[in-house]
Amino acid sequence: MNARTKLTVAYLGRGFSGWQRQDSARTVQGDLERAIKNLTGVESVAVVGAGRTDAGVHAAAQVAHLDLPVSIPPDELPRLLNFRLAWDLRVRRARHVPESFHARKSARGKHYAYRVSWRQADLPWRHLRSATMPAVDKTEAFAEACRLLCGRHDWSSFTVPEVARRGAVRMVFRVDPVWRRDGLEVHVFGEGFLRYQVRRMVGALLAVGGGRMTTSDIFDLLDHPRPGSPLPTAPASGLTLERVYYRCSPRITG
Question: Which residues are known to be catalytic?
Answer without folding.
Answer: 54
